[in-house]
Amino acid sequence: MVEFTSLAKDLGFPEGPIAMPDGSVILVEIQSSLLTRIAADGARTVIAEIGGGPNGAAIGPDGACYVCNSGGFRWAVNEKGRHPVGQAEDYAGGRIERVDLRTGEVTRLYDRSENGPLRGPNDIVFDRNGGFWFTDTGKGHQRHMEHGGIYYAQPDGSSITEVIFPMLQANGIGLSPDEKTLYVAETVSGRLWAFDVESPGRIKRRDFPSPNGGRVVASNQGYVLPDSLAVDSEGNIAVATIYEGGVTVFSRTGVVVERIELPDQFVTNICFGGPDLMTAYITLAQTGQLVMMPWSRPGLRLNFS
Prior knowledge:
Layout: E1 5-8, E2 14-19, E3 25-29, E4 34-38, E5 44-49, E6 54-59, E7 65-69, E8 73-78, E9 81-87, E10 95-99, E11 106-110, E12 112-113, E13 116-117, E14 121-126, E15 132-136, E16 139-140, E17 145-146, E18 148-153, E19 160-167, E20 170-175, E21 181-186, E22 191-199, E23 202-204, E24 215-219, E25 224-231, E26 237-243, E27 246-250, E28 256-261, E29 267-273, E30 279-284, E31 289-294
């Protein structure tokens, strides 16, 4: 088990960390329905009470925070912490929201695409052109599952397109350093997918037997299920994993570069920060922690953050 520093505790199932230039980390608390800032000294400030289930976050070209909202979950609690067990009883649909970091004002941008309502928006990444890709996990029910997919949208609310469909619980999403490859973690299948980006919001689809136009980069075994991810400056993909909690780092060709075990069954996300981007901030959601640790390679600087 690696050594790390716990920067914040007692968070309501944290996700979506964003390392900010001032040394703070902005993240969502899914169970608490909050967008929160954690200062470098651990001090906590609520930016906005969002409602539903804020799940992923990214800074846009206007300096606002854009949030994927799954609509919320029901929760189970045991001696190890908490975890989601299904759709919230007051679920009212998924959506993409914009949060003004100065005022905390929350604006709904999208709750549907050309093919129907969003079900469970999960993770988000901006490209250098100012548009953003995001995942929708779909919804699991007792007797059936609604497929998820990948979308591309503009931050001004003017355009949203379903680009990739179907996927089995599309979760983490990220872009390669040259932005020619889009990576997506598919939780229930344990797969990391790659899609060739032709232009902003468009992919070059691979033929059958690919079910979604992508190629499989890697496939985890056992209960090492991928959640959200981050890409480093060398193009490696660091994937947070649940059930067997930790971070698995894959090369762009799918070779396991390293595996970091962490003491939480729901390691949900990772981002890179610090002046040299060699500090990893990781959300241990079941125990409600944001932790930090040195990283062996510089992370990839995200657009606009």
